[in-house]
Design goal:
alpha/beta, TIM Barrel, Immunoglobulin-like, eight-stranded parallel beta barrel, five-stranded antiparallel β-sheet, 24% helix
Length: 480
């Protein structure tokens, strides 16, 4: 299937310090002709397959958001076996509690495929207008209308929960008023639709200072932290869209400071959202964190990785992020900072380190038909079956190293389904062996080995795993 993703214009709006963090381009989509279904035809909910209870081979929640912009072009690229939840964006809510459907709804093919694979389908309701949210959150009749509309949609389409993505609040609405609203919504829907999940898309920083994250977590089943948009059109210097460390705001600070009380009391209330998109700027120099001349736009991973590989992807150790740059003319450079399998792998490690409920992706389809980002999910979260005390691993697997590029150390994961002699060797670009990492009989299980290349020169290397008839080779890049 051809991968085509529209250029995403970043929607950044600061109100009481709250930076808009979702990128959507739905204005034209709202007026497009519905090509998939006939809205005049009567919908029959009996056609939708209910959720099938299956033993998912994932060690944590993996929550992927699917924007309506990507539904037509990217629905066939979804790996349902590597997801636990799909959030359907966007069911816009107005000030009176009315809820509109996204284009092409109902997405019965996605719902059925998800449910057949044991993946929950979540209705994502949105509003980004402060005055509308103020009225909605403070009007009993508007709230009840919203609650009823959401209940009806859950029941009609056999959906499994609601995620509330309300942003750009008046600061006075982002504390107790919001928490009371979420508590009322959760109680109502839990009673009306038993088993459904209620969550909130939370900011990565306490913009305005009035958010009460502990109360918000208690008011719903979990919070999906929007762990991105740390940089963008508002930036004076280039930098990571989702830095793990560095600067005054980063993912580590978000978890250990902004959400500290929840992290200490109930980390399973938190999902760490990560970006599948990056930011592009014009700069005067090629230096990392260069002063910005102008912001251009956000662009998805599928574009970033192709563009970056042409000019050479670099690695920034101050924020643990890939980036690349190229010269436009004598006075102007272009820089792009984004996330790849290496940086996302480190973010997933962070989520596991703090024992979070799981991770989330904004957004499904931004990686096109690439398997790179699915592979890192499999690497980090796929677990083996355990039946009658026996570990059952379906096949030998060699995973992509992380981080990659690296300096000077990187980690390689691999799986062994049965006792076997396993070798993993590293070769240079001319095919000369430079190091043997593993040469031993391994029992069934999951393993990892560290490769330290401090004595090697920068460049492209390959590592190869052999076990019986199994042979797998992957590329790694040493960048000093």
């Amino acid at each position: 299937m051809k991968s085509y993703i529209l250029v995403f214009t970043i929607l950044i709006f600061c109100l009481s310090g709250n930076v808009k963090s979702f990128q959507r381009n739905s204005t034209n989509k709202r007026t497009q002709k519905k090509e998939i279904i006939n809205k005049d035809s009567k919908f029959d909910s009996s056609d939708i397959i209910p959720l099938q209870l299956k033993n998912k081979k994932l060690s944590a929640t993996v929550f992927g958001f699917l924007p309506d912009d990507n539904y037509l072009t990217e629905r066939n690229n979804i790996h349902y076996d590597l997801l636990t939840h799909i959030g359907c964006i966007a069911f816009d809510a107005d000030s009176l509690g009315n809820v509109s459907d996204p284009p092409y709804w109902p997405w019965t093919d996605v719902i059925d495929s998800a449910h057949e694979n044991g993946v929950k389908v979540i209705l994502c309701t949105t509003n980004f207008v402060a005055s509308q949210m103020h009225y909605l959150l403070n009007s009993d009749s508007a709230k009840q209308n919203l609650f009823t509309n959401l209940k009806n949609k859950l029941l009609m389409y056999k959906l499994d929960g609601v995620n509330v993505d309300f942003e750009r609040f008046y600061s006075t609405d982002s504390g107790d008023i919001l928490n009371n609203f979420m508590s009322q919504l959760t109680v109502y829907l839990h009673n009306e639709v038993p088993g459904c999940e209620i969550s909130f898309a939370g900011p990565h920083y306490n913009w305005g200072g009035n958010w009460k994250f502990t109360g918000l977590a208690n008011a719903c089943d979990y919070i999906v932290i929007m762990g991105y948009a740390y940089a963008g059109s508002f930036s004076s210097n280039t930098g990571s869209n989702a830095p793990i460390i560095g600067g005054t705001q980063n993912l580590t600070n978000t978890l250990t400071q902004q959400y500290r009380s929840i992290l200490n009391s109930n980390p399973k209330k938190l999902i760490l959202g990560v970006p599948y998109y990056g930011n592009k700027w014009f700069t005067r120099t090629s230096d990392p964190h260069a002063a910005v001349v102008s912001f251009l736009y956000t662009q998805p991973y599928s574009k970033n990785i192709l563009e970056g590989e042409k000019v050479g992807i670099r690695w920034d150790t101050t924020e643990e992020s890939p980036w690349y740059t190229w010269k436009i003319n004598d006075s102007t450079w272009c820089q792009v900072w984004f996330d790849n399998d290496s940086s996302l792998g480190l973010k997933y490690d962070l989520a596991m380190k703090y024992n979070l409920k799981g991770v989330g992706m904004w957004a499904l389809g931004y990686d096109g038909n690439s398997s790179d980002l699915w592979n890192v999910i499999e690497n980090k979260f796929e677990v083996t079956d355990v039946r009658n005390g026996n570990i059952l691993i379906p096949t030998f697997k060699l995973f992509q190293n992380y981080p990659n590029p690296f300096n000077p150390s990187t980690t390689i994961n691999y799986s062994v389904p049965k006792t076997n002699l396993v070798t993993i060797k590293v070769y240079d670009i001319l095919g000369r062996e430079v190091e043997t990492l593993v040469n031993d009989r391994k029992a069934a299980g999951n393993y990892k080995v560290e490769f330290n290349a401090s004595k090697l020169a920068s460049g492209i290397y390959f590592y190869q795993m052999r076990a019986g008839n199994f042979i797998s080779t992957k590329k790694l890049v040493l960048l000093k």
